[in-house]
Specification:
This protein is α/β, with parallel strands linked by helices and 325 residues long. The chain has 13 helices and 12 strands. It has 2 domains: 142 residues, Response regulator (Rossmann fold, 3-Layer(aba) Sandwich), CATH 3.40.50.2300; 146 residues, Response regulator (Rossmann fold, 3-Layer(aba) Sandwich), CATH 3.40.50.2300. The strands form 2 sheets. The chain has a 7-stranded mixed sheet with strand order 7-6-8-9-10-11-12, with helices on both faces. The chain has a 5-stranded parallel sheet with strand order 2-1-3-4-5, sandwiched between helices. Helix 3 packs across helix 4 and helix 5 crosses helix 6.
């Protein structure tokens, strides 16, 4: 009797366990990707990342879930949002920008992180570009030659330039490295630089006033979310103060800025999806080298140039990726 009861017990347990095993094999949990950014969901970069996922065969709601968190340019919210993503136990986190990456890394050392950053090595996100180590990898959006190219473009636009004001936000963790590169480029090109800290939107007018008072011939904008989300305001103030201003992304030129030179951010964010895919398929972020941008773009707004009384040299127009008239 006891033997028959034992056999029935084992048979019942097996019958119960089998459907669960079959379910785990046939209906694996949908991967969950967390995303942290300071930008809006409608930003072109966000669109490029989502398109990258689609190009790799991911369909949100079918074979992928995205837990999207945005601080909407309120950087003080990033830490709380990062904590929420970690608590949700997502499979991988895509952190857009140095500020978001700093927040996520302070919350987890185990969940894989795919980041974009101006200087991932300098900020301690990775040990090196070739061997990231730890749980973070991704893409750098700043090449060492970029600062020099921007100042060269300004020197071509403003012959005889002696001094340029540099607007930068000390609250952005990557800005100090971009500032250093710009200072080194300025010394090489014999252009004196006036460093002006800009921490809030309210500081823009004062920054231009200081630049004008300091007899700057042009303004260089250092990459930071504060500058990106207010590029139209910066472009307007540049025209009002009659100061040629160079930005780092095309959106600023479309918003009325004079000129921009920098990495094609659409390419960078599209490529970030590849890293997410690799990690979801089992790759270790420590073994995925950080990529640097391969395509840089020059944009010029001729309407703004005319408003500033600047004649853009034909040589510069010929090398531009797009000229807005």
């Amino acid at each position: 009797m006891r033997r028959r009861q034992f056999i029935r017990l084992i048979s019942g347990a097996a019958a119960t366990a089998w459907p669960l095993t079959a379910h785990s094999q046939q209906g694996r949990p949908i991967p969950r990707v967390g995303e942290l950014t300071v930008a809006l969901s409608t930003s072109p970069n966000e669109g490029a990342f989502r398109q990258g996922l689609r190009d790799l065969g991911y369909v949100e709601g079918q074979n992928l879930t995205i837990d999207f968190k945005t601080a909407e340019f309120k950087t003080e919210l990033l830490d709380r949002l990062a904590a929420e993503l970690v608590a949700a136990k997502v499979d991988v986190i895509f952190s857009s920008g140095s500020e978001a990456t700093t927040a996520v890394r302070s919350r987890t050392t185990s969940i894989p992180i795919v980041m974009t950053s101006t200087n991932p090595v300098g900020l301690g996100f990775v040990t090196s570009l070739a061997r990231p180590g730890g749980n973070t990898t991704g893409l750098s959006i700043f090449g060492p030659e970029v600062a020099g190219k921007r100042l060269e473009a300004v020197k071509t636009l403003v012959p005889g330039i002696a001094k340029a004001a540099v607007f930068w936000n000390p609250n952005d963790p990557g800005a100090q490295f971009s500032l250093k590169e710009t200072q080194e480029a300025g010394a090489a090109l014999n252009i004196a630089l006036q460093s002006i800290e800009v921490r809030t939107v309210d500081g823009f007018e004062d920054a231009f006033h200081i630049a004008v008072s300091g007899r700057a011939d042009a303004v260089v904008i250092i990459p930071a979310p504060l500058m990106s989300r207010n590029s139209e305001r910066l472009a307007s103030l540049a025209i009002q103060n009659r100061l040629p201003t160079i930005f780092y992304d095309r959106e600023a030129v479309k918003a009325g800025g004079l000129i921009s030179y920098g990495a094609n951010l659409g390419d960078v964010y599209h490529r970030a999806a590849y890293y997410v895919d690799r990690i979801l398929k089992g790759a270790n972020p420590a073994d995925l080298p950080v990529e640097q941008p391969t395509r840089f773009e020059l944009f010029i707004n001729l309407k703004t140039a005319k408003a500033l009384g600047i004649t853009v040299p034909q040589m510069l127009l010929a090398t531009a990726d797009e000229v807005i008239e």
